[in-house]
């Protein structure tokens, strides 16, 4: 009896993992673990049923590993890859789920840490300065050579 | 990978009809080409309407129809505005086109100018820079053809890419610059009408409020005016666009081909008309999340949104518009790069004694060879369009200052021009790999300016402008 209970307990503990393993289309991967631009590409293997139809998947993105508050839930029935943009700073979690919300992949994470504004404004300032120099040069040269070719 | 909007068979039929149409038109126009000058420079007698249209159509390319939506999707508002600022390249080139025609009335290529103005060392550096850029752009256009067909019809990437290359190489080969300019005129009309129509449908069917709400919820950073990477990208794109136009034989060959006194007006008009186009094409990318479109690759967002908005018939329409945009640039680039390779590499470096009739034949073989090389490089689909294009930014931005100072100032010497282009490019590549693709052109332009300023301060070449007058006799 005790052995049976142990087996049952083991099955119960292992069941979610078995379920995931049985239906997981593949490992979900992200192109970078640290994005400085707020965009990432996520990819996975497309699973097909007996009729060769792609298994519909939803991609969930959340800021917590329990996915209690999902930021995005995307229906991607035919895709095995998606490029997402516009993320703010933070740590994000992603996973694939099926139509009945059953997990189809392991949870992966990626961090978005934008470049510092100080660096951005430094480059902006350099760009603006170069632009003004170019504009002034072209205006002056054109005017000068229009008068005296 | 994604629901196709056009049945594959329909896409193939359009492709065949469309391709055959352009090729026959190119052949018909090419019948009048009797000399090298006819083939390469359309007889140096292009009028204002054709001149403005070809400048505009050439600049509306994968940049505007595929990459502008991509960069809006990645960099938001700044991506859209930054892209439209590429029009400044055309606008700034307007007075330079006039000066080029005045200084070199018998010139053929931008390479002629660099060689005569700065000498052979700078010319060699320039040819490397120019060739890298031309191949990068050609490959991006071939890739764009494949991506477009894949996104809209589910046709294999390699088939779409091969089709656009075969079509454009064929009519450029048959008709030369005359065919390129004439097809550009028709393509401009298709593109302008098409882009405005798609933008209108997006605004009407999705609406600004919905787009704003969805983007602010799902992609908040895209609306953030303090988006660091996008702020870095802004001036980078401006200098990339300026560098592309200032150095490329695509624009110089047009300056030589336009009727005397027209270059300035034609480029100014083309720039002003081009300015709003990336705003429209970029805007539709922001509608992606409102329409539940999440692209596998960022460069597919534009055609996918447009095709979803307009349905199957609309997808055909989108296909024709984007295909026109790609073809109008691909043909121009093939022709201009062919000229550069024929005149500067074949005649300049390999066979200086070649006569014009021989060069006429060689120029056709060069176009064919370029098409084949582009096809081979497109096969592996190594990167996204945006990244590929911005990689070439490191090369082209280094040429801005040597060309500006070279056209207007006697002081700059060949040594410093070569150093500015070489070291500018290397520093741009360093920025590309160390920071990101959105700083390559800016870094390259900055270093190039610093070297030119040092050169102007240290040496005085006292260049004689009269040496540019007889471009062909002084090789």
Short précis:
The complex is a heterodimer of chains A (149) and B (475). Chain A is an alpha+beta fold and 149 residues long.
**Major sheet description of chain A:** 5 strands, mixed
Determine the CATH superfamily of the largest domain in chain A: Macroglobulin (MG2) domain
* Envelope shape of chain B: globular
% residues in beta strands of chain A: 15-25%
Q: Give Rg of chain A in angstroms.
A: 26 Å
Domains of chain B, number:
1
Radius of gyration of chain B: 21 Å
Number of distinct helices of chain B = 19
According to CATH, what is the class of chain B?
Answer: Mainly Alpha
Describe the overall structure.
The complex is a heterodimer of chains A (149) and B (475). Chain A has two domains: 2-114, Immunoglobulin-like (Sandwich), CATH 2.60.40.1930; 116-149. By secondary structure, chain A is an alpha+beta fold. The longest helix of chain A has 31 residues, at 117-147. Chain A is elongated. The N and C termini of chain A lie far apart (105 Å). In chain A, the strands form two sheets. Chain A has a five-stranded mixed beta sheet, with no helix packed on it. A three-stranded antiparallel beta sheet of chain A has the order 1-3-6, with no helix packed on it. Chain A has helices at 2-23, 117-147, and strands at 29-30, 34-35, 40-43, 58-62, 70-75, 81-84, 90-97, 108-112. In chain A, strand 4 and strand 5 (70-75) form a beta hairpin. With 475 residues, chain B is mostly helical. Chain B has a single domain (8-388), classed as Sodium/glucose cotransporter, CATH 1.20.1730.10. Helices cover 78% and strands 0% of the residues of chain B. Chain B has 19 helices and no strands. Chain B has helices at 8-30, 36-41, 48-59, 62-84, 87-103, 110-118, 120-153, 157-205, 208-218, 228-247, 249-257, 263-274, 277-286, 301-350, 356-378, 385-396, 400-408, 414-434, 440-458. In chain B, helix 10 packs across helix 19 (440-458). The longest helix of chain B has 50 residues, at 301-350. Chain B is globular, with a radius of gyration of 21 Å. At the A-B interface, strand 5, strand 6 and helix 2 of A face helix 4, helix 5, helix 10, helix 17 and helix 19 of B.
């Amino acid at each position: 009896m005790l052995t049976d209970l142990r087996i049952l307990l083991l099955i119960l503990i292992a069941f979610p993992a078995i379920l995931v393993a049985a239906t997981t289309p593949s490992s979900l991967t992200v192109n970078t673990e640290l994005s400085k631009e707020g965009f990432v590409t996520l990819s996975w293997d497309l699973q097909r049923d007996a009729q060769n139809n792609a298994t519909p998947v939803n991609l969930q993105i959340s800021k917590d590993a329990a996915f209690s508050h999902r930021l995005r839930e995307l229906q991607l029935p035919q895709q095995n890859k998606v490029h997402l943009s516009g993320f703010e700073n933070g740590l994000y979690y992603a996973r694939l789920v099926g139509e009945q919300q059953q997990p189809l992949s392991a949870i992966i994470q990626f961090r978005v840490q934008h470049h510092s504004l100080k660096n951005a404004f430094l480059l902006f300032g350099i760009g603006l300065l170069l632009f003004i120099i170019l504009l002034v040069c072209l205006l002056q040269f054109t005017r000068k050579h229009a008068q005296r070719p | 990978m994604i629901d196709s909007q056009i049945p594959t068979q329909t896409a193939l039929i359009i492709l065949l009809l469309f391709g055959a149409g352009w090729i026959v038109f190119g052949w018909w126009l090419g019948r009048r080409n009797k000399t090298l000058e006819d083939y390469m420079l359309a007889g140096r007698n292009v009028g204002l309407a054709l001149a403005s249209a070809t400048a505009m159509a050439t600049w509306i390319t994968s940049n505007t129809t595929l990459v502008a939506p991509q960069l809006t999707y990645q960099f938001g508002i700044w991506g859209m505005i930054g892209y439209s600022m590429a029009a400044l390249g055309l606008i700034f080139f307007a007075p330079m086109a006039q000066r080029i025609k005045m200084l070199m009335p018998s010139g053929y290529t931008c390479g002629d100018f660099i060689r005569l103005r700065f000498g052979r060392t700078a010319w060699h550096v320039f040819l490397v820079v120019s060739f890298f850029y031309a191949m990068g752009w050609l490959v991006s256009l071939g890739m764009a053809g494949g991506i477009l067909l894949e996104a809209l019809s589910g046709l294999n990437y390699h088939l779409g890419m091969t089709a656009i290359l075969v079509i454009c190489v064929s009519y450029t080969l048959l008709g030369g610059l005359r065919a390129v300019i004439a097809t550009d005129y028709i393509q401009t009309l298709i593109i302008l009408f098409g882009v405005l129509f798609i933008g209108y449908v997006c605004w009407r069917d999705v609406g600004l409020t919905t787009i704003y709400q969805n983007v602010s919820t799902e992609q908040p950073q895209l609306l953030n005016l303090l988006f660091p990477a996008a702020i870095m990208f802004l001036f980078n794109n401006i200098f990339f666009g300026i560098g592309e136009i200032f150095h490329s034989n695509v624009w110089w060959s047009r300056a030589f081909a336009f009727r005397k006194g027209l270059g300035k007006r034609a480029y100014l008009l083309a720039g002003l008309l081009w300015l709003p186009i990336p705003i429209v094409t970029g805007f539709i990318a922001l509608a992606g999340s409102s329409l539940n479109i999440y692209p596998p690759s960022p460069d597919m967002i534009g055609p996918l949104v447009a095709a979803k908005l307009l349905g199957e018939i609309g997808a055909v329409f989108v296909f024709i518009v984007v295909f026109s945009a790609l073809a109008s640039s691909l043909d121009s680039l093939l022709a201009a790069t062919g000229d550069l390779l024929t005149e500067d590499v074949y005649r300049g470096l390999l066979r200086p004694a070649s006569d014009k009739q021989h060069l006429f034949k060689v120029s056709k073989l060069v176009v064919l060879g370029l098409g084949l090389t582009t096809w081979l490089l497109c096969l592996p689909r190594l990167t996204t369009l945006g990244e590929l294009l911005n990689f070439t930014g490191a090369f082209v931005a280094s040429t801005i200052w040597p060309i500006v100072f070279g056209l207007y100032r006697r002081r700059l010497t060949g040594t410093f021009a070569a150093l500015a282009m070489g070291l500018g490019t290397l520093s741009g590549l360093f920025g590309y790999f160390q920071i990101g693709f959105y700083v390559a052109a800016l870094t390259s332009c900055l270093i190039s300016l610093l070297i030119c300023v040092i050169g102007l301060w240290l040496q005085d070449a006292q260049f004689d402008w009269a040496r540019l007058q007889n471009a062909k006799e002084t090789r």
